[in-house]
Amino acid sequence: MIFTVVNPVLFDPPENNDAWMTRVVLAEQWWKNEDRRFIGLSYPNVLTVVNIPTTIYAIIAAYRKQPVRSALAGAVSMLLKFWYVAELVREYEAENEH
Asked: Given CA atoms 78, 79, 81, 85 in this order, what sign does their dihedral have?
């Protein structure tokens, strides 16, 4: 929470929207402004639904000191998250090409 408050003070806004993470943030804002859900059974939201138990499993595996299972589940979780935000960016850019 502290970083959320301090971040705008420490870092200037991006000079352009070319950076991938900037486009992710813009896509997430657009998705929210369109009153779309982030969790659901429609694509790409189903990726988040699948990611929830994957992340929980990674945490449990880490707690149980199962490093290989924790690392694999963590990697799958990150893959699902990046896939999800990449889809949001793709839809955002397709919508805003006009």
From this structure: positive
| DSSP-assigned states of every residue in 36-85 | --SSSSSTTHHHHHHHHHHHHHHHHHHHTT-HHHHHHHHHHHHHHHHHHH
Per DSSP, the three-state class of 6 is helix
Please report the pLDDT score of residue 15 as a whole number: 78
Q: Which two tokens stand for residue 19?
A: 């950076």
Q: How many angstroms separate the CA atoms of 59 and 3, rounded?
A: 23
Sign of CA dihedral 13, 19, 25, 28: positive
Give the span between the Cα atoms of 7 and 30, in whole angstroms. 21
The string of pLDDT tens digits covering residues 20-60 is 888 999 999 999 998 888 888 989 999 999 999 999 999 99
